[in-house]
Amino acid sequence: MASNMSAIFASFQQHINVEQDLREEIRQVNKDIDQKAREIQTTLQIIHQEGGLTKIADCCALTRKLFLDVKTGFSKLAVLIPEDQYYRFHDHWRFTMQRLAFLASLTVYLESGQLAMIEDVAQIVGVTSKREDGFHIDLEDYLMGLLQLASELARFAVNSVTNGDYKRPLHVSQFVAELNSGFRLLNLKNDGLRKRFDALKYDVKKIEEIVYDLSIRGLKSEEKSEDKSGASSTS
């Protein structure tokens, strides 16, 4: 009986060892991906610096190259995860994926002024957008990334004014307002996501205050006047 008991617990220990080894491999690969995400975030900080508005195109081009390394990392990670056990290990890369969803969305916004759909983000980071297709970006991770995007754009609006661009905050204001309207259609039950959404109203308010300040200072109307005069001169 004692020998049987020992054999049983020896098999348990073997299972634990395999599990620990796998988790350590996952942590190491995710660490490399997260490091690349930090590099991307550092690169994108250029937009907030003096003269950064003129470097947006170059900044996005460099970011796209860095995302290629992220794709490689997720390819390695996907191989490690046993079939149908994505959510068993999801906590290892949850926050990294949320950050990358934010960074990919910011890159798309800077390039086109448009919202990056979940399929766009999945393609940029090198995963799928659907659970049934394997290693994917979880919808809540994508949504969390969009909420981080709103906060970053609020900061971007402030720094755009500082750098003399009075038109950009108007577009940011419209974009974030539409994003806010979209989130209000959702019945959010995830505590973390709901709390993060609660902060969105402060981002909206911050941007609205910037636009209002431009308006009362005459800078908003001045921008419109410049647009009209520019249109007249080209016609």
UniProtKB/TrEMBL annotation:
<keyword id="KW-0255">Endonuclease</keyword>
<keyword id="KW-0540">Nuclease</keyword>
<dbReference type="GO" id="GO:0043565">
    <property type="term" value="F:sequence-specific DNA binding"/>
</dbReference>
<keyword id="KW-0694">RNA-binding</keyword>
<dbReference type="InterPro" id="IPR036081">
    <property type="entry name" value="Translin_sf"/>
</dbReference>
<dbReference type="GO" id="GO:0005737">
    <property type="term" value="C:cytoplasm"/>
</dbReference>
<dbReference type="GO" id="GO:0004519">
    <property type="term" value="F:endonuclease activity"/>
</dbReference>
<dbReference type="GO" id="GO:0016070">
    <property type="term" value="P:RNA metabolic process"/>
</dbReference>
<dbReference type="InterPro" id="IPR033956">
    <property type="entry name" value="Translin"/>
</dbReference>
<keyword id="KW-0460">Magnesium</keyword>
<dbReference type="GO" id="GO:0005634">
    <property type="term" value="C:nucleus"/>
</dbReference>
<keyword id="KW-0539">Nucleus</keyword>
<protein>
    <recommendedName>
        <fullName>Translin</fullName>
    </recommendedName>
</protein>
<feature type="binding site">
    <location>
        <position position="152"/>
    </location>
    <ligand>
        <name>Mg(2+)</name>
    </ligand>
</feature>
<keyword id="KW-0963">Cytoplasm</keyword>
<keyword id="KW-0378">Hydrolase</keyword>
<dbReference type="InterPro" id="IPR002848">
    <property type="entry name" value="Translin_fam"/>
</dbReference>
<comment type="similarity">
    <text>Belongs to the translin family.</text>
</comment>
<dbReference type="InterPro" id="IPR016068">
    <property type="entry name" value="Translin_N"/>
</dbReference>
<dbReference type="GO" id="GO:0016787">
    <property type="term" value="F:hydrolase activity"/>
</dbReference>
<dbReference type="GO" id="GO:0003697">
    <property type="term" value="F:single-stranded DNA binding"/>
</dbReference>
<keyword id="KW-0238">DNA-binding</keyword>
<comment type="function">
    <text>Exhibits both single-stranded and double-stranded endoribonuclease activity. May act as an activator of RNA-induced silencing complex (RISC) by facilitating endonucleolytic cleavage of the siRNA passenger strand.</text>
</comment>
<dbReference type="Pfam" id="PF01997">
    <property type="entry name" value="Translin"/>
</dbReference>
<dbReference type="GO" id="GO:0046872">
    <property type="term" value="F:metal ion binding"/>
</dbReference>
<comment type="function">
    <text>DNA-binding protein that specifically recognizes consensus sequences at the breakpoint junctions in chromosomal translocations, mostly involving immunoglobulin (Ig)/T-cell receptor gene segments. Seems to recognize single-stranded DNA ends generated by staggered breaks occurring at recombination hot spots.</text>
</comment>
<keyword id="KW-0479">Metal-binding</keyword>
<dbReference type="InterPro" id="IPR016069">
    <property type="entry name" value="Translin_C"/>
</dbReference>
<comment type="subunit">
    <text>Ring-shaped heterooctamer of six TSN and two TSNAX subunits, DNA/RNA binding occurs inside the ring.</text>
</comment>
<dbReference type="GO" id="GO:0003723">
    <property type="term" value="F:RNA binding"/>
</dbReference>
